[in-house]
Write a structure and sequence with these properties.
Length: 257
């Protein structure tokens, strides 16, 4: 029986911890202290570290964890992260036998040039996507091109609908505010806002989300929907038609929102 637990870090980061009551894997440990505290509290033995991209709030605790635990640290082959021991890229398989989980690596450039995500399909469909896809939003494009980010999100959207999506940040409420501006008639989005506000009032994470829900509410996965296209056209006063151009304009709009 696997547990996936969010260790809170910084202002709004989650360091996702996957464990079977004995062994644990942590994803994007931006800081080591809360991870070590959690492992001690739950009497868990760290067996691997997964990193999605080089930003310090995802990697900052890695070196310290490696000094305490002799474990592999997987991370993107296409980025320079000194503390990574096992660089991986698209198509690589990571067999975490201690927790009986097999991850496939997906290249998801856009937020950073070498960003990767980790997907497992057994015993359930789960995705750790770092800062690529958020609930109701997507990551900022720091290093890649809008086209790359669009293709990365399209790749993630082809995963099974029931995939549980574990993003690194709790951005859901602010993302919903923007989404409602560009998709005001979406009743599922209105429902999500009520549910998410209730969770956050009780300091409960709004994550994981599911791909099925994101396809219904996330404007960055809905760039082929007429209502989104109309709102983007209205805003930009340009005759954009293809979904990638709509995505680019939508991302720019969100940057200044
Ligand atoms: Zn980042």
């Amino acid at each position: 029986m696997l547990t996936i637990y969010p260790i809170h870090a910084f202002k709004d980061n989650y360091i996702w911890t996957i464990h079977n009551q004995q062994y644990a894997v942590v994803v994007d440990p931006g800081t080591a202290t809360p991870v070590i505290e959690y492992l001690e509290l739950e009497k868990l033995q760290l067996c691997a570290i997964l990193i999605t991209h080089h930003h310090s709030d995802h990697t900052g605790g890695n070196q310290e964890l490696l000094e305490s635990f002799d474990v592999p640290a997987f991370g993107p082959r296409n980025e320079f992260i000194p503390s990574i021991t096992h660089p991986v890229r698209e198509g690589d398989q990571i067999n975490l036998h201690e927790i009986s989980l097999n991850f496939t690596v997906l290249d998801t450039p856009g937020h950073t040039q070498g960003h990767i995500a980790y997907y497992a399909s057994n015993p359930m469909n789960i995705l750790f996507c770092g800062d690529t896809l958020f609930s109701c939003g997507c990551g900022r494009i720091f290093e890649g091109s809008p086209q790359q980010m669009y293709q990365s999100l399209q790749k993630l959207s082809r995963l099974p609908d029931d995939t549980l999506i574990y993003c690194t940040h709790e951005y859901t409420l602010s993302n919903i505010r923007f989404a409602r501006t560009v998709d005001p008639e979406n009743s599922k989005l209105a429902e999500l806002e009520i549910a998410a506000r209730k969770l956050r009032n009780n300091i409960i994470p709004t994550l994981p989300t599911t791909l099925m829900l994101e396809k219904a509410v996330n404007p960055f996965l809905r760039c082929d929907q007429q209502e989104i296209i109309d709102h983007v056209k209205n805003k930009t006063k340009q005759s954009l038609t293809d979904p990638a151009s709509i995505f680019t304009a939508l991302r720019e709009w969100k940057n200044s929102y």
